[in-house]
What does this fold into?
Amino acid sequence: MVAPRQSTPRSILITGASNGIGAALAKRYAAMGITLHLGGRDPARLAAVAAVCREQGADVVTCQQDVTDRAAMADWIAQADATRPLDLVIANAGTAGGPLGEPAAVPTARRIFAVNVDGVLNTIEPALPPMLARGRGQIALMASLAAFRGLPTGPAYCASKAALRSYGEGLRPRLAERNIGLSVICPGFVRTAMTAGNRFPMPLTLTPDQAARIIQAGLAKGRSRIAFPWPLYLLIRLAAALPPAWIDGRLARLPRKE
Ligand SMILES: NC(=O)c1ccc[n+]([C@@H]2O[C@H](COP(=O)([O-])OP(=O)(O)OC[C@H]3O[C@@H](n4cnc5c(N)ncnc54)[C@H](OP(=O)(O)O)[C@@H]3O)[C@@H](O)[C@H]2O)c1
It folds into this structure.
């Protein structure tokens, strides 16, 4: 199936825009004539990103939000779409572990699923009906190369990203029939707060801006899957193809994400 042609997005909503890849994407899209709706939990970091985007000429509306708050997300996205119909929604916010200050009793795996899976559903479910009514729009789901194989470094993280990848792949042809594009983004290692604490080697690490440039180019082409860097992509596809009995023991030697 041919992906719907993507025109330059003018009204863009990004979750997790206060830091890392989301902030880099916001800055790359920021320009005269562009409206950016930027979400995140940390108001100071969100304001700093918004200020840079405004300097570049974009109209910016920020919203301090937690993607796990379904009702608040629906309100925010409805308001954003009413301000200027959304062309592109990037469901980027994600976590790899329990946030600092979280009570120890909150199981990390459930928190990861709540943010990475429910949070993405809370983002795209309110965005889709108006896009479908208009017969145009584009959705980007931030998965990961970790979506292709469960790894002992972060079992819940891998599973949450595998869910997004699979959900996006299933949804894509159905949305394409209605002229809505959907891309699943699968980055390798990117140097952000999320990876700062990793104690294991992170080959071919990119800066957030390098990752954002690749993502923006892939979205402009309406690519179904934006997976990079390609050597790591090949490696994880190979690991996924090998018999579990053979590869499990080798992967078990990798250091864990705490
Ligand atoms: N870094 C990598 O190597 C890598 C690789 C593959 C995929 N990814 C994915 O890329 C996305 C961005 O990650 P990153 O590396 O840029 O990490 P990051 O620098 O830690 O940024 C994460 C962003 O998500 C937001 N966020 C986290 N929990 C949230 C919540 N409950 N509600 C609303 N916003 C929330 C954060 O907002 P606040 O800071 O304001 O709370 C922040 O803006 C994630 O989905 C991640 O899984 C990252």
